[in-house]
Amino acid sequence: MTGRKWVWLLLPLGLGLAGVMLLVRVSLIDTALFFPEDLDVLFIVFGLSLAIFAAVGLILRERMEHLRQQSVEQVRQGASAEHRRFVQRLDHELKNPLTALRAGLGTLALTLADENQRQLVQTMEAEARRLSRLVADLRKLAELESAPLDAHLIDLQSFFAEVADLERERIDRDGPHFTLDLAPELGSAPRLIGDQDLLLLAIHNLLDNAFKYTPPEGHVRLRVWIDDEDLVIQVSDTGIGIAEKEIHLVWEELYRGENAKDIPGNGIGLALVKAIVERHYGVTALRSQPGEGTTVTLWLPLA
Hints:
Elements: H1 3-29, H2 39-111, H3 115-144, E1 151-154, H4 156-166, H5 168-172, E2 177-182, E3 192-195, H6 196-212, E4 219-227, E5 230-237, H7 269-279, E6 283-289, E7 293-301
Parallel strand pairs: 2-4
Antiparallel strand pairs: 1-3, 4-5, 5-7, 6-7
Helix pairs in contact: 1-2, 2-3, 3-7, 6-7
């Protein structure tokens, strides 16, 4: 509760208590309790009036704030539900045509003798696959807001060993140098309660972005440590970076930075990361400088 709310709460209580004490004193001592010239009585009436006025004001303020928050939440829930319905309809309407299109393009590529035509068909097939992934990611993002989590205790050392295994192929091939920095206290830290598959997806998306936007001579680093009662996961790179005016936009679905237009992607990765972290009652932060790199940090509360 803020300081102003404490004042509004204590003011009527204090004035009311003072008024009751004066009323008791006058009732016991002064026989002329209700004469107009009795200053004590006037003071009691004034104090009680202020107390009532302050109490009514407090009640009205709290009620209006509650109604405002309730209205905002209803609008948000309604918009979220409508968004989920739209994505589900989009997925339903596009899934079968895209599957048929990809199958047809694959067959067509086998029958063409001209190399230029085959390359054109392959390009079309790649774009169809990209559209399929985009629709699937949008559906996954919409479902994250309402679908129940498969939450259980996660052993941190085993979890990050699995992260390393999943990323092994990308780490071993030519590309940015990769560093995995796990704090020693992870072995003795309290466990994390969460959906392991979703958390793996969040870290994979962060690493995927870092490798994608970092040149081969660059560096990608995954750091993990314990900060008080939080697990901190940080992915940093020395890639192309993000302009300051765009940092607050990159968490939105489908948004892509101006300097990333020529790099394959659909603008869903960071939106998925944010949704997954928030479902685990965590916090996300991003800092970046164009040409110097990007650092994304996640704070997840431990059990």
